[in-house]
Amino acid sequence: MPRPRAIFRAQSIIYRMASTTSDKATPERRAELLQNLAETKTCFAEASKSLSHAPTLVAVSKTKPAWMTRACYEEGQRDFGENSDIDLVNKAKKLADLDNLRWHFIGVMKKTEGNDLRRQARMGELTTVLNLYAIQSLTSIEDADIYNNAIPADRKTPLNMLLQVNTSGEVQKSGLQYVDAETEAVGSPLFKLACHVIEHCPKLHFQGLMTIGSQTESIASSERPNQDFETLKKTKDVLEGMLRSNPAFNGRWGDNGELLLSMGMTADFEAGLRAGSHIVRVGTGIFGARRMK
Question: What are phi and psi of 33, to 5 degrees?
Fold first, then answer.
């Protein structure tokens, strides 16, 4: 059986970069980076051909230095993501001169005993990033309220929020339980959070849903539909039907009356696009394997 193209490509990039001993801004390292970006964009365009909408490629730099983000920006990339709020805030300061750059926070600020005030302070600092476009990992009403209350008064547009859904059922992954039908969705934490953002968080905008699929489904996605992605699509359909039934919610969620889907990463972003994703998040495929701090 042939190896899935996306997985083979991601692994070949990792192997190619394994010989790079540092992320210093050398001509060779820059050339590798831009080659990866170009290859990713080619695959992205090919997988997007059948879509009726224009999807967004988010380049996720993780632990990589800011010069790499700048280099990708200079090649036309505009949407960037970070798993770490600290990295996002620091890089945003270093790259404040770049017009039209949009930051996406896709990580989770985990709660630990005794750190509530520090965590809230970090969440507040994150909202001060002027070009923070979206938070793709919202999972609780409590966090929605913290973000809503922390957003500076001079922000001109609501901050986009995607609710993270655990479609694989893996306990190690964050996210709310998916829903299959309206009957089970009515009292679900997912629907309650969506309604709360719409009704009680005027500085936030409920834009869509995000998931991180299982490795098993990712590997199999070149041979058959990714079931985690299909689950998120079903959840989207259920929520849209319920939201549309409430006239008070008209125009207050999604994009042109549709919830956006963020599904697909380096190894399976092409499958995500084939499944109808609006946003894919590619890190290793562009920047190489992350370096442990």
Answer: -60, -50
Other CB atoms within a 10 A radius of the CB of residue 50 amount to 8
Q: What is the pLDDT of residue 9?
A: 55
Q: Tell me the per-residue pLDDT of 211-230, one tens digit each, with 9 for 90 and over.
A: 998 888 888 777 788 999 99
What whole-number distance in Å separates Cα of residue 222 and Cα of residue 135? 29
pLDDT in tens, 56-107: 999 999 899 999 999 999 999 999 999 999 999 999 999 999 999 999 999 9
**Long-range pairs for 113-121: beta carbons < 8 A, 24 or more residues apart:** 120/146, 120/150
Mean pLDDT of 263-282: 97
Nearest of 64, 58, 146 to residue 106 by alpha carbon: 58
DSSP state, 181?
S
Q: For position 291, what pLDDT does the model report?
A: 66
Dist. CA 287–CA 243, nearest whole Å: 38
For residue 292, give both structure tokens: 């442990």
Question: Which of 110, 224, 238, 91 is closest to 179 using CA atoms?
Answer: 238
Closest CA to 17 of 3, 34, 38: 34
- Residue 102, classified by CB atoms within 10 Å of its CB into exposed (0-12), middle (13-18) or buried (19+), is middle
Q: Please give the Cα distance from 128 to 39 (Å, whole number).
A: 34
φ and ψ at residue 255, rounded to 5 degrees: -130, 110
Task: Give the residue among 276, 232, 236, 226 at the shortest CA–CA distance from 47.
Answer: 276
Query: pLDDT digit string (tens) for 98-128?
Result: 999 999 999 998 887 668 899 999 999 999 9
